[in-house]
Amino acid sequence: MTENKLPSDDSAFDLGVPSLLEAYKQQCKLLIDELDDAWLEVRQSRKNVAKLVRMNASMSDELAALKREHEKVRWQLSDIYLKEGLEAAAKIGHFARRKPEPDSTGQT
Fold first, then answer.
1. What are the residues whose beta carbons fall under 8 Å from the beta carbon of 26, sequence distance 6 or more?
2. Is 90 among the domain residues?
3. What are 62-86's pLDDT values in tens digits?
4. How far apart are alpha carbons 91 and 89 in whole angstroms?
5. In a domain, 10, yes or no
6. Between residues 87 and 68, which one has the greater pLDDT?
7. Which domain covers residue 68, as residue numbers?
8. How far is CA 35 from the centre of its chain?
9. How far apart are CA 85 and CA 94, in angstroms?
10. Please, which pLDDT band fits residue 91 given cuts at 50, 70 and 90?
11. Is position 82 within any domain?
12. What pLDDT score was predicted for residue 1?
């Protein structure tokens, strides 16, 4: 007769192999830990989103102010160009209004 060297099903529990209930409990503990980690990440993500929303609002306000300032500067520059153009036109007009001097033939 050959002797069976493998442990029987009953003796496996004596060697520290967990029962099905113990395995489920361990799996539940692992899932709870993962869930806790996930909720921690969710809370951190919510804080980050709130911070980004505040930053976006601040940047939007700053952008609107800069656009208003840009428009104001464009109008000022336009006024400067208009003034310079009118001054240049006046100078040209001044020269154009002068009576031509007669040439050597006496014609104007």
1. 18
2. yes
3. 999 999 999 999 999 999 999 998 8
4. 5
5. no
6. 68
7. 24-96
8. 30
9. 14
10. confident
11. yes
12. 46
Does residue 41 have a pLDDT over 70?
yes
Residue 3's alpha-carbon distances to 6, 7, 12, 38, in angstroms, are: 9, 11, 18, 52
Tell me how many domains the chain contains.
1
| CA 55/CA 62 separation, integer angstroms | 10
- pTM (whole model) above 0.90: no
Burial class (CB in 10 A: 0-12, 13-18, 19+), 106: exposed
In residues, how long is the chain?
108
Element (H, E) at 96: helix 20-97
CA dihedral 9, 10, 12, 16 (to 10 degrees): 150
